[in-house]
Amino acid sequence: MKAGRDGATIRTGLIGLGMMGRHHARVLGSLDGVELVAVADPGPQARKAAGGLPVVDGVEELIDMGLDACVIAVPTAAHTEVGMALASAGVHTLIEKPLAHDSASAVLLAETFEQAGLVGAVGHIERFNPALQNLRSRLEQGELGAVFQVATRRQGPFPHPIADVGVAKDLATHDFDSTAWVTGQAYATITAHTACRSGRAHEDLIAMSGRLDGGTVVNHLVNWLSPMKERVTIVTGEKGCFVADTLTADLMFHANSSHASLPPWEAMQAFRGVSEGDVIRFAFAKPEPLRTELEAFRDAVLDLDQGSDRIVTMRQGLSVVKVAEAALASAAAGGSVTVLPHQAVYQDSYRTAAGSAMAFAR
């Protein structure tokens, strides 16, 4: 199914020309099969940042220009209103993460786009990071054996444009989504602690532990308080551990040492838990994650029957919002929180999308 108005080219709009919006404009403007027709942003610097593209003030003016698809890169609080306007106009849409500021709004968006038969995607860009895609493929092939733990660290300076949500719903949602996607498991229980240290109304630090529905233990350390930028995912299992650095898109494997060459009795005597084995740094292609994400969105619009397996769906974006809410509820209550039972509805979509995305990446 071709969704472009001329049968091949998707007329696409962009709403929001902040830091992330400008990156979207750069990539959308260079994608085959995509015509970036205009951007919407009422800010005084928008025309300068638009690079010669037509600039309008709001979503309705953009819709009037005749769109097939649109990317939303505005503050989280505005996602629902803008997304619903695009859905009403029959426009396929990618919304920057998180999908919405709360789960009720996320449900509304997901259901509206589904019922309208529209592509509804969420910009969880880490799924398209080459290091995590390669890691997911290796886990699927059993290279780690059973997965015991996923630990992530995502910390750095505060991004000043973000003012309407805290670190749990903004930065940490990268790890919530990528952890569920990489493992093919949904969150079951969460215990979290937060802090506000920078004088803002929202939390700027979260330390969280939990368990996925497949038994894997998870730990996330996320903050906007560190002068260094760190983006690390460590997956530990029975054969060793993978270390993915999503800043550099590097992936390494630290193997458990093997005692296979020793006689059985000597091997038993030598074993004292795991020990250091070989270390491998993998080489693979490293395309820009945002380009890969927007190519997947384009392909989903062009092929509604098959392409949606390649994107992060709004259903999956909804599940991430629920995990963030559970983490904040745990921090407020000072105890463990069970993720709502219907969270498990989305575990199968994680697994299906993971396999399809990795086949596409390869």
Key features of this structure:
nine-stranded mixed beta sheet; 15 strands; alpha/beta; disordered N terminus; disordered C terminus; 362 residues; 11 helices; six-stranded parallel beta sheet
Descriptive account of the structure:
This protein has 362 residues and is α/β, with parallel strands linked by helices. The chain is globular and about 75 Å long. It has a nine-stranded mixed sheet. A six-stranded parallel sheet has the order 3-2-1-4-5-6, with helices on both faces. It is built from eleven helices and 15 strands. Strand 4, helix 4 and strand 5 form a beta-alpha-beta unit.
Short description:
Helices cover 33% and strands 25% of the residues.
Element layout with pairings:
Blueprint: E1 10-15, H1 19-28, E2 34-40, H2 46-49, E3 55-56, H3 59-63, E4 69-72, H4 79-88, E5 92-96, H5 103-115, E6 120-123, H6 130-140, E7 147-155, H7 172-183, E8 187-195, E9 205-212, E10 217-223, E11 230-237, E12 240-245, E13 250-256, H8 264-270, E14 276-281, H9 289-302, H10 314-333, E15 337-338, H11 347-361
Parallel strand pairs: 1-2, 1-4, 2-3, 4-5, 5-6, 7-10
Antiparallel strand pairs: 7-11, 8-9, 8-15, 9-10, 11-12, 12-13, 13-14
Number of helices: 11
Largest sheet: 9 strands, mixed
Question: Uncertain runs with pLDDT below 50, 5 residues or more?
Answer: 1-6, 342-362
Task: Record the strand order, biggest sheet.
Answer: 14-13-12-11-7-10-9-8-15
Helix percent reads 25-40%
Distance between the termini: 24 Å
Mean pLDDT: 88
Could you tell me the number of beta strands? 15
So what's the overall shape?
Answer: globular
